[in-house]
Specification:
Aminopeptidase, five-stranded antiparallel beta sheet, 6 helices, globular, N-end_Aminoacyl_Trfase_N, acyltransferase
């Protein structure tokens, strides 16, 4: 068991699997279960490059690759581009409403939306009830700081983004949307409203998870700036300036390398 910064973790064995993002590569994942959680603990783990679904935490630990790079928007310095404003106006003209739910409850209708959205990706089919249990555990586990950003068209849910509001960070955990509304760019609308939410709460960062430049489903995160990257656990630096240009002295294609696992670094 590992105790650190208001979090108690049970490390799980690291596993190697085929990489779900880059073909022909093996992926190694560091995993843990949170026994005790706190907002400050989640924020600390985010800055160490971890992500979480409910109480399940993970981060890539592929010393031979490093292409899953944690990124976060400097929301405090973010200026909405003409394109951003156009996307927001389009959703406003369509009559979309955006709400924040601080203690969301499991909803089978959201599960159905989640499943429809997952069909965009080549995941293997699983048992539906098992999927629903996993869905609830991942997104409705009542972890500290958990919230749900919902975009509605009247009574119909257009998009849902599960987020964490912890310390100086808003973290986008997972977003899914109705493909019938794709022309409104619902995923982008959600991110822009998360930037607005972070600004309104005095939070500096919007954490977007991992950027993978060679995966077209993950490269979109590079389109938001100013953007910071992490190359080592807890080590962050400015990467892209407000115009999206690589900052002088920063690596053009950064890598995230985890040399020591939490078990190796913190086991008591």
């Amino acid at each position: 068991m590992i105790a650190l910064v208001n979090v108690t973790l049970i490390p799980l064995p690291e596993v190697q699997t085929p990489c779900p993002y880059l073909p022909g590569i093996r992926a190694q994942t560091e995993r843990a279960i949170a026994v005790e959680f706190s907002e400050s603990g989640i924020n600390y783990l985010l800055k160490q490059g971890f992500r979480h679904f409910g109480r399940f935490l993970f981060r890539p630990r592929c010393l031979w690759c490093g292409k899953c790079v944690p990124v976060r928007i400097d929301a405090s310095a973010y200026c909405f581009s003409r394109s951003d404003r156009r996307v927001l106006r389009k959703s406003e003209r369509a009559g979309f409403e955006v709400s924040l739910e601080r203690h969301p409850l499991p909803d089978p209708a959201l599960f159905e939306l989640y499943l429809r959205h997952k069909k965009r990706f080549p995941f293997p089919a699983e048992d539906e009830q098992e999927n629903y249990d996993s869905f609830v555990d991942s997104f409705f586990a009542a972890t500290p700081g958990a919230a749900l950003l919902r975009i509605r068209d009247k009574e119909r849910t257009v998009a849902v983004s599960h987020i964490d509001l912890v310390g100086d960070t808003c973290s986008a955990v997972y977003c899914y949307w109705d493909e019938e509304y794709a022309i409104y760019s619902p995923g982008r609308v959600a991110i822009l409203h998360e930037v607005l939410l972070a600004k309104s709460r005095g939070m500096r960062y919007l954490c977007l998870g991992y950027l993978i430049e060679e995966n077209r489903s993950m490269i979109y995160k590079k389109g938001y700036s100013p953007l910071q990257v992490s190359t080592r656990p807890g080590v962050w630096f400015d990467w892209l300036d407000a115009e999206g240009h690589c900052i002088a002295g920063a690596p053009e294609h950064p890598l995230f390398i985890v040399e020591d696992s939490l078990r190796e670094s913190f086991l008591l």
